[in-house]
TrEMBL record:
It is found in: Membrane. ATP binds at K582. Pfam families: LRR_1 (PF00560), LRR_8 (PF13855), PK_Tyr_Ser-Thr (PF07714). This is Protein kinase domain-containing protein. InterPro entries: Kinase-like_dom_sf (IPR011009), Leu-rich_rpt (IPR001611), Leu-rich_rpt_typical-subtyp (IPR003591), LRR_dom_sf (IPR032675), Plant_receptor-like_S/T_kinase (IPR051809), Prot_kinase_dom (IPR000719), Protein_kinase_ATP_BS (IPR017441), Ser-Thr/Tyr_kinase_cat_dom (IPR001245). Keywords: ATP-binding, Leucine-rich repeat, Membrane, Nucleotide-binding, Repeat, Transmembrane, Transmembrane helix. Residues 554-637 form the Protein kinase domain. The keyword Transport does not apply.
Length: 637
């Protein structure tokens, strides 16, 4: 039997291969063993003279690439990626003049790239990324190119991946001889010097990725025309230059880049100046890039307003303009990008109001507007952003309450409203945000009880520090709440007390005054009024500690009701006497004045229809009356 192909890819085969596998398979043309668990060293394959396809990737082979691979002159494809090989790439690979695809990525290869590889004119795809290869690429390529009269090397190359190594030197101009090149990825290396204008000769270029090197676009004697040279690359989709010291302004020629451009990144490139007007309000320039998917200009020195025409880029999904000096208000047109997913405008000088139109961004997942100068209320339309996972509005000048509509943002994981002027209460309804993991409202002027259920169980004191008058659990390092009735859940009850209690209070006072008047006028005995039956000075005073113990720490279970000036709790004194404890609200001056009046009036009145005052407790910040407990319920009941 004559074997020409062995293909057992994507199984669970294991073990080592026979050392002389090719001795018994001299006619083998294809050996596809990728996607298994074979181990050991790659066997001698020099005797497979007819081999055209070799795929051993994604296994557990170790050792190095066998040098005899260079004798397989009919090879067209070599795939050795994602295996544990080390050592150098054999220079003998340069003998494979029919080779079209070479992939030795994601391994531990070291040393220089053999210059002979760039002498293989048939190569279409070179993948050497994510290794530890070193050397000066310009010198490596020039070793062969300078000897070729027709410059035929690299003439068929379409994809070149060298990222994630330690290659150095300049990017060679001669790389432009690869006239069919579509993808050039050289990021995460040590390249330096000017980005060559010759890259503009790569008219088929779709992806140019040079980020995280030490490249620039200018020298001390001239300004580079690199961006202008890319006008020839009419198929360019991705231009990624972040984390290079470009040290330039954005040129007006940027507006003439390919209309196919989807992603443009120049983060942390020391870019300065304004966003050019040529790529701003002129619709047929930047706004003509209808397929632009991502725009990232973060960590530069851009200033001026945000171009209004960004709202016309309907394919835009990601915008990152953070850490610049952009100012003015954000154009209303920007919030019409209803399909945008991520927006980061943090650390700029934007001002004005957060618009109600922000609710149109129905599919947005990340929104960061922190560290600006926004000064409005938080629009309730935020509640319609039901896919939003991260909302960062910290370090602004926002004011007003936290909208209760935020409880509709059921996907929310991070909410940061810290360092603003937000007031009012924390809506208890936010407890239903089950995915919320990070919550920060510190350094505001919030008040009232901190919610204590749902997602709030996991938040710490850091989330609430430096606010006006928040209260709650001791673990949150805030003052205890004097009235633990959840405000949002008892609105009807509070409204009832708001109107009913003053009415009954007025009735009691009127009755008391009438009694006093009749006593003085008629000396009547039927409604006997005893002047000062128990003088205030003779009342047996009681301490805060005794009252707290009598009411179980003013527990909700002992709560009887509340009025405009305080709350009433049932208590049992140490001797067993049941009492009603009326605690006056320490935050209201009127409440403390009411305490003084009630002490004066109620201490002088004794009547069968009025509750008897037993004693009182009065300190600088706590005042309470201890009244006779009425076991048959309130007047309302």
């Amino acid at each position: 039997m004559v074997w020409k192909m062995i293909s057992v890819a994507s199984n669970n085969l294991f073990g080592s291969l026979p050392k002389h596998i090719c001795r018994h398979l001299p006619n083998l043309e294809a050996l596809y063993l990728d996607g298994n668990e074979f181990s050991g060293q790659i066997p001698s394959i020099g005797e497979c003279k007819n081999l055209q396809g070799l795929q051993l990737s994604t296994n557990r082979f170790n050792g190095s690439i066998p040098r005899k691979i260079g004798s397989l002159t009919k090879l067209r494809t070599i795939f050795l990626y994602d295996i544990n090989l080390e050592g150098e790439i054999p220079w003998e690979i340069g003998n494979l003049q029919r080779l079209e695809y070479l992939s030795t990525r994601h391994m531990r290869l070291v040393g220089s790239i053999p210059a002979s590889i760039f002498n293989i004119s048939s190569l279409k795809d070179i993948q050497l990324q994510d290794n530890s290869l070193s050397g000066n690429l310009e010198k490596i390529i020039s070793l062969f190119l300078c000897k070729l009269p027709c410059m035929s090397a690299l003439s068929n190359l379409e994809e070149l991946y060298l990222w994630g190594n330690t290659l150095s030197g300049s990017i060679p101009d001669s790389i432009s001889n690869a006239s069919k090149l579509r993808i050039l990825e050289l990021e995460l290396n040590l390249f330096s010097g000017l980005i060559p204008n010759a890259l503009g000769n790569l008219k088929s270029l779709e992806i140019l990725s040079l980020w995280s090197n030490n490249l620039t676009t200018k020298t001390s004697i001239h300004e580079s025309s690199f961006f202008k040279s890319l006008e020839n690359c009419s198929y360019l989709r991705f231009l990624l230059l972040s984390s290079n010291p470009l040290n330039c302004v954005l040129p007006t020629s940027l507006s003439n880049l390919s209309k196919s451009l989807e992603e443009f990144k120049v983060e942390a490139c020391k870019i300065r100046g304004r966003v050019p007007v040529e790529i701003g309000p002129i619709p047929h320039e930047l706004c003509g890039l209808k397929r632009l998917y991502g725009l990232s200009l973060a960590a530069n020195e851009l200033d001026g307003p945000l171009p209004a025409c960004l709202g016309d880029l309907i394919s835009l999904r990601k915008v990152d303009l953070s850490s610049n000096k952009l100012h003015s208000s954000i154009p209303f047109s920007f919030w019409s990008l209803k399909d945008i997913l991520e927006v980061n405008l943090s650390s700029n000088h934007f001002n004005g109001s957060l618009p109600f139109d922000i609710g149109k961004l129905k599919v947005i997942t990340n929104l960061d507007l922190s560290r600006n100068f926004f000064s409005s209320d938080i629009p309730p339309t935020f509640g319609s952003l039901q896919d939003l996972q991260v909302l960062l509005l910290s370090h602004n000048r926002l004011q007003g309450p936290i909208p209760e509509s935020l409880d509709d943002m059921l996907s929310l994981k991070v909410l940061d409203l810290s360092n603003n002027n937000i007031s009012g209460f924390i809506p208890k309804s936010l407890e239903r945000l089950s995915y919320l993991k990070i919550f920060d409202v510190s350094f505001n002027i919030l008040e009232g009880e901190i919610p204590n259920s749902g997602c709030f169980v996991n938040f710490t004191a850091k989330s609430f520090m430096n606010n006006y008058a928040l209260c709650g659990s001791p673990r949150l390092q805030v003052q205890p709440c004097k009235n633990n009735i959840p405000r949002q859940n008892n609105k009807a009850l509070l409204n009832a007390f708001k109107y009913i209690i003053p009415v009954f209070g007025s009735v009691i006072i009127v009755v008391a005054l009438i009694i006093v008047y009749k006593k003085w006028k008629n000396k009547s005995t039927s409604l006997a009024i005893v002047e000062d039956p128990v003088p205030i000075r003779d009342w047996r005073r009681i301490s805060y500690y005794q009252l707290s113990r009598a009411t179980s720490g003013f527990d909700d279970n002992n709560f009887l009701g509340s009025g405009s000036f305080g709350s009433v709790y049932k208590g049992i004194l140490a001797e067993g006497t049941e009492v009603a404890v009326k605690v006056f609200n320490s935050d209201l001056d009127e409440a403390f004045r009411s305490f003084d009046v009630e002490c004066e009036v109620m201490g002088k009145i004794l009547h069968r229809n009025l509750v008897k005052v037993i004693t009182c407790c009065s300190t600088i910040d706590f005042k309470a009356l201890v009244l006779e407990f009425m076991p048959k319920g309130s007047l309302e009941k």
